[in-house]
Amino acid sequence: MTYSVDEIAKVMQTPLKLNAKAGDKIFVITDTKMDPVLWQGFSKAAKELGMEAAVGVMEPRATHSSNPVSAIHRAALDPELDLIVYLTSTAMAHATITEELIDNGKRHLLMEELTPAMLSPDGPAGADYAALNEVGLRIAKIFTEGETCHVTCPNGTNLTASIKGRPGRSIAGMPVQLKPGGGGGCAFPDGEAHVCPVEGTGNGTIVFDLTAHSVGAIKQHLKLTVENGWVTKIEGGREAAIWRDILDKHGDRNSYNCPAEISIGLNPKVTPTGWMRTDKKMYATSHIGMGDTMALGGTCHAKLRLEGVIRYPEISVDGKTLTRGGKILV
User: Fold this and answer.
1) How many alpha carbons lie under 13 Å from residue 150 in its C-beta half-sphere?
2) 107-110 and 148-152: which strand pairing?
3) Are residues 113 and 162 in the same domain?
4) CATH number at residue 37
């Protein structure tokens, strides 16, 4: 289905109303792999709402968590800008540019891997974000007050990690402060509650069975063995081979840090597409990350950030069950 600029602009008003106001100056970072109707529609929506948007277009980055080209990187740090938008084919949430934006008090909006189809009013973009946030805040409170998180699944997942002293967050389309005194960030389409576990405490097995970064829809389970906070083995078929190759080419020791995040999806309007942008927000799923944690308030700075999604996780905190069998229980 083909979407017009006007149709995209209408939907793009939702994240703009949640994250900006009339008079704000916005910078959109995009690349040539993205459908131009997306940044054109975003720019039109910004103009209609009395905002000023500028767009920087580059070639796609080689990996997730890579910074944009230097000219765009410098432009994004302009002190006059109010909101930076990532409309890119690779995820930059855990690139160092995001740390810089947060440290400089800048807001950022993540729309990496977005496609026009994801903006259908009947899809995840049309969710009730206030309602998502209500559930997300309840989960975030449990994460914040908890000490140990346990993730299991009939697919073989059995992971434990300490979350003591780490804040839980609800990310539901509205800006959330990621560091004390720092800038805020969110995503769109959105809907998750997450926590960044304490580095070095993760132990067990993670089996991704839905979607994963750089892989898309998973056909053969992607299995990670985690020992004292490090991924020591990556097993499976094509999916595992892709991750091993990326880590061999672009990674470092810290890229094997795990779990870098444990998250619960909140959005009931997501149906699996093979794209992480929306699949990891799917209601009652869990995405777990490996690699960088700086943008989430952790202490691990890594070259890479890779995530995968578990379709039917059972997640508990200090014995209290939060999700089971495709349902959120809080």
Assistant:
1) 9
2) unpaired
3) no
4) 3.40.50.2300
Whether residue 54 sits in one domain with residue 173: no
Which tokens sit at 249?
């080419």
Q: Which of 106, 143, 125, 135 is nearest to 187 (CA)?
A: 125
Note whether 299 and 257 are within 8 A (CB).
no
* Dihedral pair phi/psi, residue 236, rounded to 5°: 140, -160
The amino acid at residue 105 is G
52 in the same domain as 10: yes
* Reported pTM: 0.86
Q: Over the stretch 204-237, which tens digit does the pLDDT of each residue have?
A: 999 999 999 999 999 999 999 999 999 999 999 9
Give the tens place of pLDDT for each residue, 259-273: 999 999 999 999 999
Domain boundary among 119, 154, 173: 119
Mark which of 73, 103, 119 sits at the end of a domain: 119
267 is written with which tokens? 């959005």
Domain that holds residue 262: 124-328
Query: d(Cα 177, Cα 71) in Å, to the nearest integer?
Result: 27
